[in-house]
Design a protein that fits this description.
- By secondary structure, this protein is of the alpha+beta class.
- It has twelve helices and nine strands.
- The mean pLDDT is about 90.
């Protein structure tokens, strides 16, 4: 418990009400997550937080009696603050959690998503591109369709754009290490494969994994956990295209 933040206890010259105000200030200023909050943010079980975050991230601990006293003293608690306090005994420092994340999270990704509309040839329009991509999806399984689509795209795109299109159409993408996004930028956006599968209706974990990988999601290893930051770009739109990071 070397990451336990010590609060001077109630004693002579230090009344309970003053300690409660100090605890509330710590909670509002930095120590804002309980264990349940972290299980949601990190898509994990309670025991993972207890085994991995509790020993490594600065936190305060309130027993049930003093926690309830703090709540009773704080007449201006918001509903969210009340819920967080009422459902926890350990409260974790966001600053130290960001430090732990920066030191331990490792990231990689397979593709970045490019907008083929940025590479249209002078005589082509976005509508032309969308219609060709839609047409290709309808006739995808027909013999010779791949070659025909490639020919159409060579006319719709500039030379650079067509080269990018060909590179992405090969479908051979390797994992490449990338800079890990900050805790602040991923907070509330992380998903596990299982969660992403449920949210998007995929029948298998492999289907969810493939979709995440080829849509430009960042894969993050944090200890024994694998988390993802999905790509926010609307990759279902016809003009968005996966491009291998290593290229």
């Amino acid at each position: 418990m070397d990451r336990l933040y010590t609060i001077e206890p109630v004693g002579e010259g230090r009344p309970a009400a003053a300690v409660a105000r100090e605890v509330l200030a710590l909670f509002r200023g930095d120590f804002k997550y309980n264990i349940l909050d972290l299980t949601g943010l990190l898509c994990c079980q309670r025991d993972w937080v207890e085994d991995n975050i509790l020993p490594e991230v600065l936190h305060i601990h309130l027993n049930r009696f003093f926690r309830d006293y703090v709540i009773g003293q704080a007449v201006d608690l918001s509903e969210a603050e009340f819920t967080t306090l009422r459902r926890g005994h350990y409260f974790f420092s966001e600053k130290d959690l960001a430090r732990y994340w920066a030191e331990n999270a490792k990231s990689d990704k397979k593709v970045r998503i490019i907008d083929l509309a940025d590479y249209l040839s002078p005589h082509s329009s976005l509508r032309d591109l969308e219609l060709e991509r839609q047409r290709h999806q309808v006739f995808l399984r027909q013999r010779q369709e791949k070659a025909l689509h490639r020919d159409h795209m060579s006319r719709l795109l500039t030379e650079e754009g067509f080269a990018l299109f060909l590179s992405g159409s090969q479908g051979r993408f390797e994992w490449v290490g990338v800079k890990t996004p900050s805790w602040r930028s991923v907070r509330g956006r992380l998903v596990s494969e299982a969660l992403y599968r449920r949210q998007n209706g995929y029948t298998t974990s492999s289907a969810a994994h493939t979709k995440l990988a080829v849509s430009g999601a960042v894969r993050i290893k944090l200890g024994s956990r694998t988390l993802w930051v999905p790509n926010d770009q609307p990759s279902k739109r016809e003009q968005f295209w996966p491009f291998p990071v290593q290229a």
